[in-house]
Amino acid sequence: MKNILSTLTLALLTLPLPAAPGLIGEYFKLEDKLGDEFEVPVGLNPWFVRIDKTVSFAQSRGEFHGSKLAENFMVRWSGAITVPKAGSYLFALNSKDGSRLHVGDKLVVDNWGPHPMKQQSGTVQLRAGAHPVRLVYHNTDVGGGCLLKWMSPAGKLQTVPASVLFHDAGKLSGIKWDQEVFAGAVGPNTPPAKPVSGSLPQKFGNFVGTALRVGKDPRGDNVAFRAQIIRLDAQGAACVAFDADTMRMAAGWTQGGLKLEGLPFTGGHGAFPSHNGAKVFTNQAAPGWANAQGSLAEPRVPEDGKYPPLGPLPKAQAHYKGLYVHGDKTVLRYTVGADPVLELPALENGLITRTIQGKFTRPAVMVLADEKGAPGLQIVGATWKPGVVDGRIVLKIPVGMAHFKVIYGSGSVSETLEDLTLLMKGGPARWTETVTTAGQLAKDDGKAAYVLDRLTVPYQNPYGMKMRIGGFDFFSDPSRAAVCTWDGDVWIVSGIDENLEELTWKRVGAGGHETLGLTVVDDVIYTVADDQITRYHDFNGDGETDYYENFNNDWELTSGFHAFCFDLQTGPRGEFYFAFGSPVR
């Protein structure tokens, strides 16, 4: 591929070094075709803003690298580049469609126009120090990609490294864009990738509750009895397993390997789900956060000495509160001591990340991974450095506001820290298609003491879910009832009248850990599953669950396939009762 080389001479005064690393990336959604212009239309506010450590975005198959944009968009990266010594520097732009690079007020590389991935380059004389840099990229249709390279001082053409790119933090704070609108938007569809063995099936939604055998550690089986397996990509090949007993992230993986077996998945007795593939990281079955004294010692001492210990941590140490669903994002909520914490696991540029947001009234210690086999870790948004305690990589967090991102592996991801509180208000509906059935009235000859009307269950439904009913209850409007299933779903059926001619079934919740009991209190749905009593919240009135609240999980849970929790009932003083097929302590 022929490069177009242009040599420019630039004599700039050395600029003061900006304090903040990375370039400001402003992403613009275009309503009309751009035409012959080289710049963002005047008066157009960004659709999305973040800090990009580098401009190294390989050609995408659909959505452009977390921007929720796929076609007819522009990106403007701005900031400064520092060069170690005076001399001639070669820059190259490899992009699908148009890109232009300015250093100072000089156009150094012009790779404009619609075209497939193509590289153009140019050279410029620079003095040692910092120089303003601006890169504009315009993509017309699906498959965008843009990479900024230079001939390094070592003489190698490579991506311009993060270590020489900076921006003015004050300018970033002055850019206006609607974060709430962006958070609520759904990204464009990406063409389906090849199936990966051991992926989390899409029918379960964002997550599924189950016991999970993570593998082995030095003490024996590493099992998360109250695991929430959270999907990180559309395929379900990338997931993390959060343990609601210990507040640890038990494991993370990106290449499948999940085996859903036993009840209720395959019907076999004795077995339960496991992950048997390559893992990005693991955490042993122990507390994920330290206690008030900063100790990670196990407070749950089993009487029989067996490992792993059972039951949740003492609430004074850490306690699981629930999870929010917002589009394809799942936000965990828990407390460390009395301090509320939000956590967003995600997959960014192929790397697992964990964004943490909270205010700490005492110093905290967070466990990141087992030292053995752990990848390189990066921390974005904080200057704290991970350390090692008893074979576990930990992060010490001081008193005050904390908002940071943990990156598992080496590579470039967005340094923008998403405000997780914006994901607590309700996201877009996911199950918009309802199912209509016709009920069956009993034949009543006027003499029978007992008759049975049938609400026809939608065994064939657009979500491919089995409809094995575990419990039901009516709302204050008796024409509506809530139903839970063994496979973790909650549905609302409406149209229950004297004729039963048209019953409408709406899926409102998913992912429960074998939900076999349900009650409605003050028109709010509660279910009991193996792991907890869940209270369901719909914040935006779209008829779907936005927050799965852990109402109570004060019992010890094992992986035993006969340890069902079912038949949720309430008493006259507001107490809840259910049957538990297991010894209780």
Describe the structure.
This protein is mostly beta strands and 585 residues long. It has 3 domains: 7-184, Jelly Rolls (Sandwich); 205-424; 435-580, no CATH class. The protein has 2 helices and 41 strands. The strands form 8 sheets. Strands 27-30-25-24-23-22-39-38-37-36 form a 10-stranded antiparallel β-sheet, with no helix packed on it. A hairpin with a 5-residue loop joins strand 32 and strand 33. The longest helix is centred in the first third of the chain and has 6 residues, at 179-184. Residues 1-18 have low confidence and may be disordered.
Walk me through the topology.
Elements lengths: L6 E3 L10 E2 L1 E7 L18 E5 L3 E2 L15 E11 L3 E10 L1 E6 L2 E6 L6 E9 L2 E11 L5 E7 L5 E3 L5 E3 L1 H5 L5 H6 L22 E11 L2 E12 L7 E5 L4 E6 L4 E2 L14 E2 L5 E2 L35 E9 L2 E8 L2 E10 L2 E10 L3 E7 L6 E4 L6 E3 L2 E6 L2 E9 L26 E3 L31 E6 L5 E6 L4 E5 L8 E7 L7 E5 L2 E5 L4 E5 L9 E6 L12 E6 L5 E5 L5
Parallel strand pairs: 1-10
Antiparallel strand pairs: 2-14, 3-4, 3-6, 5-12, 6-11, 6-14, 7-10, 7-12, 8-9, 8-11, 12-13, 15-16, 16-17, 17-18, 18-21, 19-20, 22-23, 22-39, 23-24, 24-25, 25-30, 26-29, 27-30, 28-29, 31-35, 32-33, 33-34, 34-35, 36-37, 37-38, 38-39, 40-41
Give a brief rundown of this model.
This protein is globular. The protein has 3 domains: 178 residues, Jelly Rolls, CATH 2.60.120; 220 residues; 146 residues, no CATH class.
Oligomer: single chain
Structural class assignment? mainly beta
Low-confidence stretches: 1-18
Q: How many domains comprise the coordinates?
A: 3
| Biggest sheet record | 10 strands, antiparallel
- Using the alpha-carbon principal axes, give the shape: globular
How helix-rich are the residues, as a percent range?
under 10%
What is the spatial order of strands in the main beta sheet? 27-30-25-24-23-22-39-38-37-36
Intertermini distance = 72 Å
Total strands: the figure is: 41
Give the overall average pLDDT.
Answer: 90
Share of residues in strands: 35-45%
Number of helices: 2
Radius of gyration: 27 Å
